[in-house]
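With this grant's support, we have settled on a layout for protein records. One resulting record is reproduced below.
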Amino acid sequence: MREAVLRDYYAHVTSQPDTLLTRFFGLHRVKPQGGSNVRFVVMGNLLCTDYTVHRRYDLKGSTFGRITRQPFDPAKKILKDLDLEYTFRLDPGYAKQLTQQLAADCGLLERLRIMDYSMLLGVHFKTKPTCVQKVNGAYRQFLCVFFLCASLVPSCPRNGAAPQGTQIIKSTESGSSNAAADDEADDDEEDDFDGVINTRLGENMNGVAVPGRVLAAPKGTIQPALPDKQCDVILNFGIIDILQEYNMSKQVEHTWKVSLYCFPMSRMRSHSAAQQTVIQGQHNISAVNPLEYSHRLQSFMLKVFT
């Protein structure tokens, strides 16, 4: 990690209290007696919440390779862009704040020539759709311990201050504000949703999950079926994997993926259609230059959060 990156990162997170960027708490080196150096980074856990996280999405705004192979348990698997079957309606005040914060955070990453980052999104369904799987409590504890969250990050309170004038939005679907009949053994939590619970942007935010897709899957790709109704949710999200520079290896990766995915498809079309296929493919590949990567992610996230 370059010193210049750390310096600019530190200045950004201290001046932007609502930044969505991963928080780094320390870079450490341990050398056991008679052993070799072990280096590690301590980071905050973006999904440290009192509520069960029923879905986890790693979102980049690209389509090539961005779908999870089925079958899988959605409660335990990290899902991708083409697996996303909802858009999320936020309070207008928070939606505007999200737009501004994304622009500031992505602007920093552009200047540092960082790419390949993603938005990690955790979804808790207040009214559980029939497709939501139960999550083992021990698995949730493992996640927090693994990221050293418990000892480094204050526990996420259920009640906190929200911007003045902010309202709690709820689904208008009949019955969506009433929890489905849950087994007592399902969650060890107490689902009390009366009042504001988020403390800052990206933490325990109330919203409404509306069935729908933002990205169209490539031809031949089978996506999960859309849910049949909207429901109230609690969202936790932030930007992760923010240390990858757009270096020579990433430029080679871009060229290789274009040749792997785009040119074979272009051979099956007319000349003009083939050119269009290659152009579209270049923009839908994950490894692109930092400026395009930033704009693509922002555009995508503003369609996911409305």
Q: What stands out?
A: DSSP finds seven helices and eight strands in the chain. The chain has two domains: 45-244+290-304, 248-284. The first helix runs from residue 3 to 15. The beta strands are 24-30, 38-43, 55-59, 78-79, 86-89, 118-125, 205-211, 231-240.
